[in-house]
Specification:
Elements: E1 2-5, H1 17-30, E2 38-39, E3 45-53, E4 59-62, H2 70-74, E5 86-89, E6 95-102, H3 107-117, E7 127-135, E8 138-143, H4 150-157, E9 165-170, H5 183-223
Parallel strand pairs: 1-8, 3-9
Antiparallel strand pairs: 2-3, 3-6, 4-5, 7-8, 7-9
Domain SARAH: 175-222
Keywords: Apoptosis, Cytoplasm, Cytoskeleton, Metal-binding, Microtubule, Phosphoprotein, Zinc, Zinc-finger
Protein name: Ras association domain-containing protein 5
Amino acid sequence: QNVTQTVEEEKPEPPTVQEIKQKIEKYNAKVTNCLLMKLNDDGTYTGFIKVHLKLRRPVTVPAGIRPQSIYDALKEVNLAEMTDKRTSFYLPLDAIKQLHISSTTTVSEVIQGLLKKFMVVDNPQKFALFKEMRKDGQVLFQKLPLTEYPLYLRLLAGPDTDVLSFVLKENETGEVEWDAFSIPELQNFLMILDKEEKDKIQQVHRKYERFKQRLQQTLKEARGKPG
């Protein structure tokens, strides 16, 4: 069962550098791969988080653009700005992206970084980062504020992703803000809904066609029996 929490939690007092050091040592002792956290001289620290992409709607990307290379990433080349042509497609459901971030990296920056890696040109406000937790057989989702620091949450929870994981989802605000979408995106949604409607109609037709065939077969067998 999936439950989304909207209640904000009270934040404790910021930990001291010594407390952070102890937490990092405890965290690294539980790491089973090479994805360790590292404390810097200025008191900040770096580490890795994994983000699951659970997007139900298509995203908008530049049309005809090749995937970003290492050279492009190092030179901070924005391939999305090289063409005005756009197209929409679905990102692989539940794809996982690993990010190397700092303790000063906010949720807002994580969202923008993910969109840049996948060359998504949609407004970042359309997306939200959630933390996923498991408790008493339930899967709990809590939307994170844009100013939250994901790496600190990862540090507190430990490296076990069954205890805490991060999920990128659509930013649901109760009602869809259609004004935030472009005309091509809206047209694409209509095409998707039309296809889903036709598929559903075909499923219903096939269901009752099978039911009709079984019923006719039953009547035929009943007529052949005496009495």
